[in-house]
Amino acid sequence: MTSDDLAYATIADITNHYRRRALSPVELTRALLDRIERLDPTLHAFVTVTAERALADAKRAEAALGHGQDASPLLGIPVAYKDIYATRGIRTTAGSALLADWVPEDDATCVTRLREAGSVMLGKLITHEFAFGIQFPGHRFQPAKNPWNLDHMPGGSSSGSAVALATGLVGGALGSDTGGSIRGPAAFCNIVGLKPTYGRVSRAGVITLSWTLDHTGPMARTVEDCALLLQGLAGHDPADPASSREPVADYAAPLRQGIRGLRVGVPRAYFLEGVDAEVEKAFEQALATLRELGAAVTDVEIPSIQTSWAFLAILMAEAFAYHERDVRAHPELYGDVLRERVLAGGLILGSEYVQAQRLRSRLHAEMLEVLGRVDVLATPTTPKPAPTFAAVWDPSFGFPKSNMPPFNMTGVPALAVPCGVSSEGLPLSLQIAGRPFDEATVLRVGHAYERATEWHRRRPRI
Amino acid sequence: MTEKEDDVTLDEVRARMKAAGIEIAENRLKMVRRLLSDALAPIHAVDSRAARTLEPAVMFDAIRSAEPRRDDDDE
Question: Domains plus CATH for chain A?
């Protein structure tokens, strides 16, 4: 196995190597720490590398394997966390000057669950400031670079997570998704990201952006790896008031069932408006592949889908509610873009917030009605490939319309899977959304598509 | 950046800032106006009387977390 093959091994492959004693957790961890040291000065995916902790975790995993305790599919798997997940004794910055030196006393529930599953923690990954701002030149923390073209953004806000996966620095990563922050970076970096159902994965110990829109979830290089990570994360957490008691499904086993007979709905209104021609072409080809795999693909309508952008009013108002005290007391510790986005939330009237939530109720009801007639929805994940830093840093860039927030508004699971490449060599992505708590079907469709294509196997030249 | 008829005006942004006790640098107001205009366009388009059956709360299944713990709950 070459060093690149080792770095890009899937979670499932790593586990197989461990069980055959062809690889040890310490060996893999040392190789990845070397790779991080070599590549991250260019990529800026990591805020903090926890080498000592990683080696201690790896040795513990190695001992467990030596005693035949290899039941956990995450045993010895090297992972890293978006830097809004609290980590006990390890600084958690939220990509912000405000929290640059904050060292939490407790782990987020997700961190605890992956630790208990035997994973190896490699470190903390850069996030857009408080998962909402953008790192500008001169910011306290440098932005991660898109490995497919260093002049382009990797997406956000889980930017470090996507870059670390796309460059083989980690085996799995966690992100958070309030309006697409797992799926967007996954799309722009050619990896897989899952926003589970609202309430499926705990948010306890994860810094809030918007209480009613925030989701936590896995990012990986394959759909199967996302399923394995989700299995380790999902389940009720009394520490998260929105956590569900819905039983946890088996996410990995159904992947091999195929998708013959499944119904795929395509909501063209909104989701295909303003989409680049090559994104649309890749999307239509993805639909053709799903048909070839036996799925029935039909157009569907979500009548009030155009009201989805009320999302922004909810996001900004809730973000202001969270940040008001700090942004009033220490505005200088907020980056320009974040400060203005947060303060703009303070300009939204109470009645406007209520109306936005009412529109959300209607959208939710319509989404569930459509999902009663089809098993999943398919759309392009993003209307365009990754923009350049120069474009994003222009004050007129704003907060562009996106295909991802409708699924935060409605809380249903949504997956981003690589589905093509632009003429500039930038990744393109397919979004698959499903019924509440039916991550298993969403993952099943994503896995079937992934196995029928080669897009996820592409690696950036770094 | 083109202005649309339903855009929030700069004067309205300033009035809202005054009411909320919020200060934003004058040279950043265009960006804030754009954010507010985008966020509020679908809301201002709603006829609230025509949509009066809508409640402002999405009832996710996660609401079950408020239920007492069950004996058969193995989570």
Answer: 3-457 (3.90.1300.10)
Q: What is the 3-state secondary structure (H, E, C) of chain A?
A: CCHHHHHCCCHHHHHHHHHCCCCCHHHHHHHHHHHHHHHHHHHCCEEEECHHHHHHHHHHHHHHHHCCCCCCCCCCCEEEEECCECECCECCCCCCCCCCCCCCCCCCHHHHHHHHCCCEEEEEECCCHHHCCCCCCCCCCCCCCCCCCCCECCCCCCHHHHHHHHCCCCCEEEEEECCCCCHHHHHHHCCEEEECCCCCCCCCCECCCCCCCCEEEEEECCHHHHHHHHHHHCCCCCCCCCCCCCCCCCCCHHHHHCCCCCEEEECHHHHCCCCCHHHHHHHHHHHHHHHHCCCEEEECCCCCHHHHHHHHHHHHHHHHHHHHHHHHHCHHHCCHHHHHHHHHHCCCCHHHHHHHHHHHHHHHHHHHHHCCCCCEEEEECCCCCCCEHHHHHCHHHCCCCCCCHHHHHCCCCEEEEEEEECCCCCEEEEEEEECCCCHHHHHHHHHHHHHHCCHHHCCCCC
Give the count of Cβ contacts less than 8 A between chain A and B: 138
pLDDT of B65: 41
Inter-chain CB proximity B65 and A241 less than 8 Å = yes
List, for residues A143-163, the tens digit of each pLDDT value: 999 999 999 999 999 999 999
pTM (2 d.p.) = 0.95
pLDDT in tens, A189-226: 999 999 999 999 999 999 999 999 999 999 999 999 99
B29 to chain A, any CB pair closer than 8 A? The answer is no
- Average pLDDT of the residues in A80-106: 98
pLDDT over 50 (residue B23): yes
Give the tens place of pLDDT for each residue, A170-196: 999 999 999 999 999 999 999 999 999
Question: What's the confidence (pLDDT) of residue B53?
Answer: 66
Residues of A that are catalytic: 82, 157, 181
Closest Cβ opposite residue A198 in set B34, B62, B67: B62
Q: Residue B22 and residue A347: Cβ atoms within 8 Å?
A: yes
Q: Do B75 and A235 touch (CB under 8 A)?
A: yes
Give residue limits of the domains in chain B.
1-44
Q: Which residue of B30, B48, B54 is in closest CB contact with A362?
A: B54
